[in-house]
Amino acid sequence: CDTGPPSIVPNPTNITRNFIINGYNGVWTLDHDDGSAHYNDSYNFLVYGGCKNFLGHDKACGPGNVILYPGVETRSSGGRRCQTDDNGEFANQYYFGNTCFEMDGDFYSFHGCDYKHLGNTVYQTWNNTFYSPNATFAISCGENLNFTSWKNLGQDRGSSVHDLPSPQEIVAMGRKVLGE
């Protein structure tokens, strides 16, 4: 219970400690759409789908989510990513402290991303751990960027990219995030 002065701004809605599998031809496991606001998605094990936003503000995907292969074409419509945003405008939106696995090294989908004007075209990102074959990382943001170029723009500070671990290690990460 908040003992501060009354406010018309709601407290965040927390979505936490869930194991969600994106079913056949699903799009996202967590979808905050059409102007939704004040969400915090943390410590979830998300399979075949990541976090998504369209319109709205004050949303955080993180910390602690384990996101497993959100862009697999046979399971997820449209090649979605760890964090997808179809917005192009941002206010207090964050992707941080998560672990994500992709087969092609493409971890983000930001509609209208422009590397010359990142402040208003992408989420703020930091302290993420990415896994892909051969530790590849690529993002399309007005031009194709590698991990070093992306970090030099001020994104994903404290983040790292690694080669894929074993399936047993991935399952252990999922169990840990769920508190097992």
Strand order across the largest sheet? 2-5-8-11-14-17
Shape, per Cα inertia axes: globular
Helix run count: 2
Helix content: under 10%
List the helices and strands in order.
EEEEEEEEEEEEEEEEHEH
| Largest β sheet strand count, sense and barrel closure | 6 strands, parallel
* Assembly state: single chain
The number of E-state strands comes to 17
First and last CA, distance: 29 Å
Can you characterise this structure?
The strands form 4 sheets. The protein has a 6-stranded parallel beta sheet, covered by helices on one side. It has a 5-stranded parallel beta sheet with strand order 1-4-7-10-13, with no helix packed on it. It is 9% helix and 31% strand. The chain is mainly beta.
SSE layout and pairing:
Blueprint: E1 13-16, E2 19-21, E3 30-32, E4 37-42, E5 45-47, E6 51-53, E7 57-61, E8 66-68, E9 83-85, E10 93-96, E11 99-101, E12 108-110, E13 124-126, E14 129-131, E15 139-140, E16 144-145, H1 147-152, E17 160-162, H2 167-177
Parallel strand pairs: 1-4, 2-5, 3-6, 4-7, 5-8, 6-9, 7-10, 8-11, 9-12, 10-13, 11-14, 14-17
Antiparallel strand pairs: 15-16
